[in-house]
Amino acid sequence: MIVSKPDFAVTGQKKTTKVEKNLDADGFSTKSRMKNTKVKSPPAAGAFVERPLTKPTVFKKFYERGDFPIALDHDTKGNKIAWKVEIEKLDYHHYLPMFFAGLCETSHPCDFFAQQGVHDMLEHGGNKILPVIPQLIIPIKEALQMRNRFVICTTLKILQHLVVSAEVVGEALVPYYRQILPVLNIFKNDNLNSGDGIDYSQQKRMNVGDLVQETLEAFERHGGDDAFINIKYMVPTYESCIMN
Question: What is the β-pairing status of strands 78-83 and 70-75?
Answer without folding.
Answer: antiparallel
